C-alpha cells in the first residue's frame, strides 16, 4: 500500500466494514480494512461494495482493503471487528504484526465462553505490548455505513487514551464518547444481547409491550448488579453502552439477538438458528454461570440461558419470574 494506514479494521463482516468506511469518510486519516478472503478484496476494490454483508451500500472511495496482515505493522490504531469467541485466536494470529504501543480496540460484545473472562483481559494476556480498548453502544452496521447519526462509547484504561481514540475515530455522523470504565462498557454490551433475546421471547410469545418495558427495566437492574460485582461503575449501564444499546437491540428487528428471541418465543427452541451468529446465545450461559458463582441475582439472564439450553420451557420460565418473592424495586439508602 502506498500510504501507511493510521487505522486498520480487522474483519470484513458487516460491522467491521461499516466501521472502516465511516472512519475513512472523515478523510482525516488513512484507513484500511483487513479481510480474510481475496474475493472480498476484489469486490470492494472493483465495486466499492461488500454486498454479502451490507447490500446496496456504497463504501468510502478512500477505504483501502487487503488480505495482507503486514498492513498492521505501522498502524497506531487497530480495530478488532470479529466475533467475541474468536478474539483470542485473532490476537495470537496477528500479534507479531502489531506495532508496540498500538491501540487495539475490541469491537465485539460478549465474554469469552471458555473462561467467562472479559475480552479486555483476554487480549491483554495475548497482547501485552499493546493498549487494549473497547468500542460499544447502540449502532447497527447498516446505519453506520449509510452515514446515519450514531453515538457509541470507546473505553480505555485511561480517560486520556479513550479521548485520543474518540478524536481519531469520530466523524460528522459517527460520534464516540470516551470512558475509562472498560468493565462497565463491556458488560453492558454483553448483557444487553442476552436481554435483547429476552425481549424477543416476549414478542414472539405475544406477551405484550408492558412485559417488554418491565423486562428492559428489570434487566437494567441485573446489568447494574453484574457490573458492580465486577468492580465496574454501575452508573455506566444507564448510558449509551448499557441502556442505549439495550433499547435499540430490544426493540428493533435489525437486531439478530431480538429475532433469535422471537423464534424462541414462537417455537420454544432455536431450530434453524446458528448460535455462532448470535452473541447473546453465548453470553447468556457465561453470564448465568458467573452470576451463580458470585451469587449475583440474575433471574432474567438465568431464564434466558435455561431456555436456550433446553432446560426450561417458556411457560415455566414466565411462571418462575412472576412468582419470585416481592421486594422493593430499589434498596433503601443508609
TrEMBL record:
EC top class, as a word: oxidoreductase
EC number(s) reported in the record: 1.1.1.94
Subcellular location: Cytoplasm
Annotated sn-glycerol 3-phosphate binding sites: 109, 137, 192, 245, 255-257
Active-site residue numbers: 192 (proton acceptor)
A GO term, aspect molecular function: NAD binding
GO biological process, one term: glycerol-3-phosphate biosynthetic process
Main location: cytoplasm
Amino acids binding NADPH: 15, 36-37, 109, 141, 256, 278-279
Matches recorded under Pfam families: NAD_Gly3P_dh_C (PF07479), NAD_Gly3P_dh_N (PF01210)
Residue positions binding NAD(+): 11-16, 141, 256
Keyword Transferase: no
GO cellular component, one term: cytosol
Origin superkingdom: Bacteria
Role noted for this protein: Catalyzes the reduction of the glycolytic intermediate dihydroxyacetone phosphate (DHAP) to sn-glycerol 3-phosphate (G3P), the key precursor for phospholipid synthesis.
NCBIfam families associated with the record: PRK00094.1-2, PRK00094.1-4
Record-linked HAMAP family: NAD_Glyc3P_dehydrog
PANTHER family: GLYCEROL-3-PHOSPHATE DEHYDROGENASE, GLYCEROL-3-PHOSPHATE DEHYDROGENASE [NAD(+)] 2, CHLOROPLASTIC
Protein name: Glycerol-3-phosphate dehydrogenase [NAD(P)+]
Organism per entry: Rhizobium subbaraonis
Primary gene name: gpsA
